[in-house]
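Hi R.,

Here are the chain sequences for the assembly we discussed:
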Amino acid sequence: MTKADDLNLFRHLGHLARHRELLFQMMHREISSRYRQTFLGIAWAFIKPMATVVIFTFVFSGLAKFPSDRLPYPLFLMAGLLPWTLFSVAVTSGISSLTGQSNLVAKIYFPREILPFASLAASALDFLISLLFLIALMIHFRIGLTWNLLYAAPILLIEILLTLGVTLFLSLANVWYRDITHAAGLLLQLWMYLTPVLYPLHLVPGDYRRIMVLNPMTGIVEGFRSAVILGTAPETGLLAWSFGASLFIFLVGYGLFKRFEFHLADVI
Amino acid sequence: MTIGIRAENLGKHFGLVRAADSGFKKELARRLHPTRPAEPGLWALRDLSFTVGEGESVGVIGPNGAGKSTLFKILSRVTKPTRGRLEIQGRVGALIELGAGFHPELSGRENIFLCGSILGMKRRDILARLDEIIAFSELEAFIDAPVKRYSSGMFLRLGFSIAAHLYPDILLMDEVLSVGDLAFQKKCFEWLHRSLDSQRIVFLVSHQMHNIENLCRRVFYLDKGRLVFDGPAERAISLYLSDLGYRRTQIIGPVPGDRLRAGPFEISSVTLWDGLDQPADTVVLDSPLRIRLDYKAPVPVKQPKVEIAFNCEGRRVGQANTTSDGTAPESLSGQGFLSFLWPQCFLTPNYYTVDVFVSDGGSMADLFVWRNCLGFRVLAPSGFRMASGEPGFLKIPGQWSFG
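And here is the predicted structure of the full complex:
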């Protein structure tokens, strides 16, 4: 394979499409094994965000008096936490998707991106279930729906692109340097505080805000929140930046991944 | 489409990219001692050239570290060769590590779908063969239990059954015939025999020469990454065994060897005793040699056949068994030992190894097989002169007379 081929996204996607059954099987595996042998089962997908909202509401609204755009804080928080959690859980579990299945990687050939891609499936399931919790909150606080809700779909697609790009890169790097596993939790925590999840973006002073909007998650979280609970269209410039940055990260991540794919079995 | 493989000067180099070698401490040491030369790495395979055509079955033999697994990894595209060209026509299926794709929390049935698709099967093909796969594995009763509850034998049986129903054009098998108990092994063996008749190419790695000899007409003998010999099975095997036998001659005393058991019966130890009835690892030519087998038979074994075979330089020298000696024990139960006495051992001075076989006297099925369980040396008595040229393995006892 030459360097020009490495950048050939369509070739890679075509190859992946021929192995789509394996991708679906792996996704199915991730989803169906996630809550096996747990007493509460899928309820965990509900309990975890609920508990987080209760704790964060108490700390950041009850004690620290964070403003929340005149919305009830739990609702405001949940609308930001939902897209953030999708990202952070998917990245955390995706990082070890190759190293955790080294027997497969070292023994059998299939397009390796299937493993990090499939690890997204389980967190997507969690996302859909915690979405029910957000809907419950919206009904409770009597939030009306507008057509701007439709923006949520492209925003989530942008988020998936970003998540896949970051996961591809980090899962690959983790094969060479297991440091990634240890550093990830720390970095994701830091990243969360640098994303307007717990507070609205406009609260941030201008100079800092100019830096914060470079973070592609900023546009995604803000955009999702405004589309779903504020009922307003997301800020176009912010979202466009998020899209551009996410696409770039995805292409670079995927390109690097395919470039080093054939060394995985030797190093893992 | 014709199935075929063409390799030209294949080479695989493992450099220092190993993760274990690239830690911060090592990196620091490298910076602090820039004069220390870099380690050269290792050529796991070098200059391999071969062509394999439709319907061929190729055995791959060689000592550990010869490059057998690396060759399979390259053929199955898990890793890329560092040098050379490889052309493959046909779908490659690797039956390398059975159950590698299993998820412990999922049921046997779910794992069939998962593992099948990892190995490249389409869902509808898996569905079509599902009953066949389950029947072959003999796990009908447990197929909906999570595989983490399976015994290791059940685990392997399911893995083999899935792989056996893959039908790839090129099948790679690495030591998979030593799966499960002897009955299941027999089944796998029969399955393999059937599949050899088809057009596909089969590669088989095994340390069990009788399997290679039975299944493959052509054999690759690899050593230190090079293809030492490529040709008829018998010649490759005898070449390998004589190399191996030569090395094995260093073995003395009880060794782990290769054990196979079919049931609860087991030989727990095999020991050598000399003419003075002392435990020994050497005997002197023409003096008594005794071999003692300690057994455990939780379930009594009726009229077993016990056989002791002697090998030298990879060849069978001779054997003794209870049936032809007419002294088969009525039954073996509990714990005890069997003793075999050779009143005047006439093996020529050399290094020998011992294989032990215990089988059911009625059905002749193997109950316990232990190859290379013991190594010993035969010493020359003082004044003995070895014949020049080829002394062979036996100093045949006899009497000369001159008239």
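Residues 1-6 of chain A have pLDDT under 50 and may be disordered. Chain A touches chain B through 28 residues (CB under 8 Å).

Let me know if anything looks off.

Best,
T.
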